[in-house]
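Incident review: delayed structure delivery

Summary: a single-chain prediction request sat in the queue longer than the usual turnaround. Root cause was a stuck worker, restarted by the on-call engineer. No data loss occurred. The affected request and its eventual output are reproduced below so the record is complete for anyone auditing the incident later.

Affected input:
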Amino acid sequence: MSGVLNGSPQLPSRVDHLVYATPDLRRGIGEIEELLGVQATPGGRHPGWGTRNALVALGPASYLEIIAPDPEQPAPGAPRLFGLDGLEKSRLVTWAAGGSDLERLRSTAARKGIPLGAVRAGSRQALDGSLLSWSLTDPGTVLADGIVPFFIDWGDSPHPARTSTRGAMLIGLRAEHPEARRVEGILRHLGLDLAVGSGAAPALIALIDGPRGRVELR
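Output delivered after worker restart:
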C-alpha cells in the first residue's frame, strides 16, 4: 500500500476526493493512520445506502474518503457501492471530480459516447445530527474500472475538506490500466487530465505528503 512514485508527481485538476473502500471502517481508519500518520475524522452515515465514512483532508478542497458498510443500518435493497459487499482487502477504488450543472455534463458526455450515471441526490448525516447534501453522477456506474471518476456538486453545502482532519496533502495522482490509451481518451473527452499508464491490472495511485513523509496509496 505504500512506496515512492518514480518521476515528478502530477496532480490533475478538479480532484474533489479519493475513495478508499474497506470492509470495516475501524480497520480502514487504522490503515490510513499507519500509512499517513493522520487519524481520520468520523464522517457519518449515508441513509439508505448502507454505508458510513471517515475523512482526511488532502488540501483546501480535496479529501480522502474512507468508506465501509454500516452495520447499524439495514441492508440496502441493492448492492452497496464500490463493491463493498464482497470486499476483502481495502483499496483505492475510484475518485470524484468536482463539477457543476451535472445534467448538462451528463448529456454532453452521452453525445460523445460516454455513459455517465444518472444524476442523483446524496446526503450524509453527520455525528452532530446535521445533514450534508450534494448531487452526483451515479457512482454505481463504473467506467474503466473506476479510473474514470464520477462527478459531484456540493451546491450550498460546505466542502468536507474544511472540517476534516488536516496534516496530509495530495501531490500526485495517476492510474494504470491494460487499455491505457482508450481510458485516457475518455478522460480527455470529459476535460480531465489524469495520466494513465499501461498496467496489467487497473489501479489508481495517489502520492500523499503527511507526517510520515511521502507515501503512495493504492
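Verification: Residues 12 and 176 are 15 Å apart (CA to CA).
Action items: add queue-age alerting; document worker restart procedure.
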